[in-house]
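>> received
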Amino acid sequence: MRLLLVEDDVMIGEAVLDVLRAEHYAVDWVRDGDMADTALRSQAYDLVLLDLGLPRRDGLAVLRALRARGDRAAVLVATARDAVRDRVAGLDAGADDYVVKPYDTDELLARIRALLRRGAGQAQPVFSHRGVALDPATREATKDGQPVALSAREWAVLEPLIARPGAVLSRAQLEEKLYGWKDEISSNAVEVYIHGLRKKLGADFIQTVRGLGYVIPKDAA
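>> returned
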């Protein structure tokens, strides 16, 4: 999943970036409101972790502009502004959830997982389809109840596909889930990871839609 971290405090930003990348999220980090607005206009994100007290443009202004464009990315506001009126203002501006600094990283990750599930239309905490299950909280994968060892990049390709069975994702869309701005993109990386997943989960679990991308069918093949 691709996340945008909007945080002007360098120490906090570096710490949160490490935590998110350790959970295998592709993360871009910007440090002011103008950079956040530019990033959000040029790149699709699954979730935005948004500070409110930002240089150059306030976080609420960034949020309002995002929603005015019709962007439905999940937004988790993370800020030191703990007054009720500030929380209400953030939620009314279009935020999906709110966490007050200093926050516990386990709680932060749990809120991120919950918002990503909601964005995928998934109520259950585990993605499960055709005998394959992914648990984002534990990073465990199973097939027919047996553990399956997935690399971080294989997980990053599989998660958006299994979260929305029947939805076709192009190679470019899957690459966006794999890489942040500073990552080097291999030309055939998605194909390599799809091949590895098919070997582990079954040749027909992920299907190729010629000219469009990849899909996990809603119904058994």
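>> The helical segments are 10-22, 33-42, 59-68, 84-92, 105-119, 152-163, 171-178, 189-201.
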